[in-house]
Design goal:
282 residues, alpha+beta, Phosphorylase Kinase, domain 1, Transferase(Phosphotransferase), domain 1, 6-stranded antiparallel sheet, two-stranded antiparallel sheet, globular
Amino acid sequence: MQPLEAGEPPTIGPYRLLGRLGSGGMGRVYLARSAGGRTVAVKVVHPHFATDEEFRARFRREVEAARRVGTGPDGPRWSAPVLDADPEAAVPWVATAYVAGPSLTQAVAGHGRLPEDSVRALGAGLAEALTAVHALGLVHRDVKPSNVLLSLDGPRLIDFGIARATDGTASLTSTGVSVGSPGYMSPEQILGKGITGAADVFSLGAVLVYASTGESPFPGDSSAALLYKVVHEEPELGALGGGLRDLAARCLAKEPSARPTPDEVARVLAPGGAAGLVAAGW
């Protein structure tokens, strides 16, 4: 966490900011505390998005969708539920439950690939989260290592809303901001085809490979190279072996209909449920 800089607000809505957790193309994320003492993560979009009425409309819809995920029967367990939001603020913001733990990106960069038991618990938890999301008629569309947090009580899939709210807005074109991560987007996303829950399964497969090997299944030194590989080349699965290799390969099928459902992924990785694997020490 970084200290607040000059010019950054001391509060957002009813929350007192404690420090900056990160920033990116969509906005900044702050650690904050409510008047009642609850610690939350507050995401604030960049000011230039606030002037885009199409963005505001999308943001409003995505916040409502994220709230639905948070109130679903399985949503809260493996996701960070939305607690509060103000799409109508001068600069829109959303507050989610704070998850204490590194992102998968940080964990792999700092400590290397995860052991197989941890990968199975990780994949099963994320698959169960996606099952709940898809049951609501929603698609996450941005499953990637930096959107997966590793807490002591299991993985959390985060970042519902802001990335998708920017998709297709005028601000995207004018600023060159890219939605999603090229090495983790499905071929149909890249080609601009219809998006279904199968796109999330493709991304989940790429995340499983990254967690298991420490490398993306589509390595490259430019966005263009990554996008080309995802669409036209087979994934590089490295030393991934056994059942995990077969499952990842199925998830990474170019044809959406050839991929398993999230529920199938969860049952393969954890027949008794992800919670059991996490409780056993993941």
